[in-house]
Design brief:
With 115 residues, the chain is mainly alpha-helical.
């Protein structure tokens, strides 16, 4: 478990990152529950539902994508800690590196199209 106390950057330890992922997830869960509770009274008929439900769905999907990225980052850090003797590969294969770079490109594309 000494890997959990490894400093990743600055004063941030791997255990701190895991704690942030957990806390962000719990906070997001509370936010989503609150949002749904606030929107429920606004749904009076099927027309209202067709407008509001897609907003809730999009909010949920954004949260899931953010969590996936945080988990991928934690996985990379964990591999780096576990394979600290081989600094060149960072503990990930070339195909995993390509997958991560493709995911970053996709995120950048999504962000630029929303602006």
């Amino acid at each position: 478990m000494s890997g959990l106390n490894s400093v990743v950057f600055g004063k941030k330890k791997f255990s701190d990152i895991l704690n942030e992922i957990y806390n962000n997830q719990k906070k997001k869960e509370d936010q989503i529950s609150g949002l749904i509770s606030e929107l429920k009274p606004l749904v009076q008929d099927i027309g209202d539902a067709t407008l509001i439900v897609p907003l809730i769905k999009e909010y949920l999907e954004i949260g899931v994508r953010n969590d996936e990225q945080l988990i991928k980052m934690a996985t990379i850090v964990q591999r780096v800690i576990n394979n600290s003797s081989n600094e060149d590969s960072m503990g990930i294969t070339d195909s995993e590196k390509e997958e991560l770079l493709a995911e970053l490109d996709k995120l950048n594309t999504n962000l630029s199209t929303k602006d």
